[in-house]
Every structure is written in structure tokens, then in C-alpha cells.
Amino acid sequence: MAGQKALAAKLAKVAEEAKGCTRCSLYRNATQTVFGEGPVGAKLMLVGEQPGDQEDIAGHPFVGPAGKLLDRALADAGIDRTQVYVTNAVKHFKNEPRGKKRLHKKPNRYEVEVCKVWLAQEVSLVKPALVLAMGVTAAEALAGRHVTLARERGKELDFGESQPGMVTVHPSSILRVPDRTARHEAYAELVKDLKSALKVLQAA
């Protein structure tokens, strides 16, 4: 317990440092750094691409529409979100102002690479038994190589430093599926992936 308290204190210090991050230019167009949240010692860590508009305003990861869908999927998979560490590969919202809206833009390789300093410390201090990357951006940041979602989804992967990992889709991709039936199927597949992650944890 004392060890976990020390790790939690270190993680809080890293989160404080990340607030002032200017390693790439994304901070200029974002409201704030959105660091990960969850307990040190969490068995499962979920890693997305970057905070969205609502996350950027609130300062918390996965609180917008994709976060609500993720909450539902976690519940359907039998996973308690409060016991999961949730973060993103990139800590600032990359966006393009368009009138009153801010449109999401995919972070480039450089932005993902320079932000890995924060993600690496999160993994090191939380010490999850399994990291589930949601989307290719997160998977490639963790694996340090090209990842093909269709081929590697649901399989156990090596995210370096002997860190077990898996990859699934990002919840936001399900929200973008126009057809209702296809969207329902995509959601069911996400729940299936979360259940697979739970099985890996239970077998560990």
C-alpha cells in the first residue's frame, strides 16, 4: 500500500508537469492538457488517440460522446470504469477552428512521438497488467511500429518493456458509422474486445 501511495504521488507530479507541456505546438490551440485518470495499480489501462472538444474543456479524458459510449461498453463487458486507468496517446486536443466549432484533426507522427514521454511514464507508474489501445494511433504509439487493426485486433501484442497489450477500435469510430445495424454490430465487437481483455486479465 505504501508503495502504491508513492507511485500515486509520482504520477500526480507527472500530471502537474504535463500541464505546462509545450513540446509540440498543439498546446497553443487547446484549452488545457488532458492527462490520464484512474488508480495506480489498475489492472487495465485504456489508451485513446487524443482528447476531444468536451474533454479539452472539462480537463478529463473520455467524458464526451465517445466516453459515454465507452462507459456503456465497459459496463456491458462487466468492467468497472473506476478501476480502469484511462488516458490518450496525445494530451492536447488537435483541432481546426471552423466558425464556432472546433473540428477534430488527427495528430501527426511528430506530435504523437513527442507526447510519448507522458504516456511512457503513465504506463511505468500505473503498472497495468494489460494495456488496451483504442485505435491505430494509440496502438502505434505503444508498439513503436505500424499496426494493422484488422489483422491484430483481439490478439495479445507486445507494447515494449514486456508490457502486454491488445488493440481495438476507438469508440468515436462507432459513433461515425451511419447505418444503425452496422453501428450496433461495431458496438458489439467493442464489447467483445473488452471481454477478451478481461479474460486475459483473469488468466494472468
What does this structure look like?
- The chain is α/β, with parallel strands linked by helices.
- It has one domain (2-203): Uracil-DNA glycosylase-like domain (Uracil-DNA Glycosylase, subunit E), CATH 3.40.470.
- The chain has eight helices and seven strands; from the N terminus they run H-E-H-H-E-E-E-H-E-H-H-E-E-H-H.
- It has helices spanning 2-18, 53-58, 65-77, 109-126, 136-143, 149-152, 171-175, 180-203, and strands at residues 44-48, 84-88, 95-98, 101-104, 130-134, 157-158, 164-168.
- Strands 2-1-5-7-6 form a five-stranded mixed sheet, sandwiched between helices.
- The radius of gyration is 16 Å and the shape is globular.
- The protein starts with a helix and ends with a helix.
Summarize the structure.
With 204 residues, the protein is α/β, with parallel strands linked by helices. It has 8 helices and 7 strands, in the order αβααβββαβααββαα. The strands form 2 sheets. The protein has a 5-stranded mixed beta sheet, sandwiched between helices.
Secondary-structure blueprint:
Layout: H1 2-18, E1 44-48, H2 53-58, H3 65-77, E2 84-88, E3 95-98, E4 101-104, H4 109-126, E5 130-134, H5 136-143, H6 149-152, E6 157-158, E7 164-168, H7 171-175, H8 180-203
Parallel strand pairs: 1-2, 1-5, 5-7
Antiparallel strand pairs: 3-4, 6-7
Helix pairs in contact: 1-4, 3-8
Poorly predicted tracts of residues: none
Tally of DSSP β-strands: 7
Quick one: overall form? globular
CATH architecture: 3-Layer(aba) Sandwich
Averaged pLDDT, please? 96
Biggest β-sheet, characterized?
A: 5 strands, mixed
The share of residues in extended strands comes to: 5-15%
Q: Percent of residues in helical segments? A: 40-55%
Give the helices and strands as they follow along the chain.
HEHHEEEHEHHEEHH
* Overall SS class: alpha/beta
Q: Could you say what the CATH topology is called? A: Uracil-DNA Glycosylase, subunit E
Q: What strand order characterises the main sheet? A: 2-1-5-7-6
CATH class equals Alpha Beta
CATH H level, superfamily name: Uracil-DNA glycosylase-like domain
| End-to-end distance | 21 Å
Number of DSSP helices? 8
